[in-house]
Every structure is written in C-alpha cells, then in structure tokens.
Amino acid sequence: MKFSLIQMDIAYGQPEKNRKQVEDHLGRVVEQHRPDVVVLPEMWNTGYDLQRLDEIADRGDLPGWMAEKAKEWGIVFVGGSIAEKRANGFYNTTYVYSPDGNEVVRYSKVHRFRLMDEEKYLQPGERRSPLFSIGEFAAGSMICYDLRFPELARSLALDGAHIVFVPAEWPHPRLNHWRALLQARAIENQMFIVAVNRVGKGGNHTFCGHSMVVDPWGSILAEMKEEEASLTVDIDLEEVDRVRRKIPVFKDRIPDCYF
Ligand SMILES: O=C(O)CCC(=O)C(=O)O
C-alpha cells in the first residue's frame, strides 16, 4: 500500500491560500505517485494564528471539501488536522475519509500544548477512540503533542492499530524529541508511524519538517529534510504481525504490575 506524506509550508492565518496549496500539492502527488493514502500536517488551514481563530477557523466547509477530494482521487485521505469552530469553541480536529468520500473517523486533539498557548484557545477533544480501518488493518490517529503521551499510542495498539498517523506542527528546537519519540512509539508498540510535520515559519516558531515513516522495528523507512516536499512510501502492514511474533511484547505485558 502506498502512502504519500505532504510536508508543506502553511500561510499564517490564511485559510483560502492554504486550501489552494493543499489542492495543488494533492493533485501533483496523486498524479505522480498514485498513492492509496495521503496525509497532511496539523492545522493546515490556519497555522498557529490562534488569536484570530474566530475569524479564520473552519465553520463546516472543509470536511465536505476533503470528502470530495478523497472521492475525486480515490484515496484514503488523512486530512492532517484543521482548526474548526463549533458551538462551544475551537477544536484541532483530524478528519479521515475513505476513497468513496465517506468520513471514517474524526478525532480532536486531547492534549493541549501550553508552550504554544493551546489551552487558552482550543477545547480538548472528546474521549473517544480515533481508530479506523484501512482495508483489513486497523489504523489510528493522534496529533502532534499527543506523541509525548505513550498511553495514547499504547491504547491504539491495544485496540489493534497496525499504523498510527501523526499530523504535526512541531517546531525547533525540539527536532531531537520529534525523531526519538516517533521511533520510540513505533518500537514500543511494534507498529508503523506515519508522521507529517510542516516546514516554514509561523508566529514566533520555525517548524522542523523531518516528516517520516517508521516501521514496527523502529527503522526509519524514509525521512524528509526541512523543505516543502512530498514523500511516497510503500508500506507492508503485515510486517507488524511478523515483528509482534518475533518479540511478543503484547503477550508478555503484565498489566497488574503497572501502577
Ligand atoms: O511537544 C512538542 O514539543 C511540540 C508540540 C506541538 O508543537 C504541538 O502540539 O502543536
């Protein structure tokens, strides 16, 4: 199965410009590589212009637009995440669509990143499983800072996830954390991690790119640098079961010992 990661710059607080950029990237990537799955970065419609969310957050247009794109291109579309306005506030939400344009899951980021003031502007997501299917395999999604909470990735793995997507806007100077945590989550849960970060500047932050695919053994199958680019990787999801048979971590867990 082919997975395309779109590592893009995001125009600060300019949703229309960003939608056009996504449309262009998507068309190019799909025509060139014919992927089965395409993944975008976090909050690709607005960037971290949190103070202007009332003006710029999506009010219900983008989910329908992403559904159409999934159908037009016949892809599983992991729509990164978008800033959206709901009746009770703003959320940072991932929508995933099947190739026939149906929504298969939506997940709003639960852990809010104080270093970038998320708790002042965004509501935490509701507690429900971000699990969905890609063919016969279970997949899950989390968003950026969620990566620091091994419990979430472990819950997805315990629910059967073979692959977890991590759309992000992860800034410098923590590139070393990004790389180490992605590998750690893949190794400890013996699953694929497909992580899509943005590049460029926004507000006071410079984002570090290095989107990558990590396999269940912890090897980085492919990694981008710090420029706008896309990456298409062939992933054999059956590798998860092979690794889990080799070192049967999930059989050897002793939940009673974990206080
Ligand atoms: O955890 C980090 O260092 C970065 C997290 C982040 O930038 C985010 O959640 O948007």
TrEMBL record:
Keywords from the named record: Hydrolase
Which Gene3D superfamilies does the record cross-reference, listed alphabetically?
Answer: Carbon-nitrogen hydrolase
Q: What is the similarity comment for this entry?
A: Belongs to the carbon-nitrogen hydrolase superfamily. NIT1/NIT2 family.
Pfam families for this protein: CN_hydrolase
The CN hydrolase domain is annotated at 1-237
Q: Which GO terms describe its molecular function?
A: hydrolase activity
**What name does UniProt use for this protein?**
Predicted amidohydrolase
Source organism per entry reads: Melghirimyces algeriensis
